[in-house]
Amino acid sequence: MDDFGVGFSSLSRLQLLPISELKIDRSFVQFFQEDSQDAAIVEAVALLGRRLGIRVVAEGVEDLSCLALLEAFGCTHVQGYGLARPMSAEAILEVGSTQDSMRASSAAQGESLGSTP
Question: Which CATH architecture best describes the domain 1-83?
């Protein structure tokens, strides 16, 4: 469910539709490190997603310094310009192969795979 928390995305939709992913709207994610209300919303939606057994995506991540907190809240995925700008399919394949080697290196050093974007 895209843009969860705004517009037509509501809790009742979670009961009616077979949802496999919640995408927390960027309006909550953008300033959650500075705004305690936004942080509470992001954390609550992430907890809801975990309890329902579905993937939780934080939209609008522009600063990678927030990744550890998003992971602590339970967001399983992130998207935004902080990770990459829109790109062609060929460029995505190149980034993916680079990420694989970064993840292998992190795993070999005993780091959490979640620490690598």
Answer: Alpha-Beta Barrel (3.20)
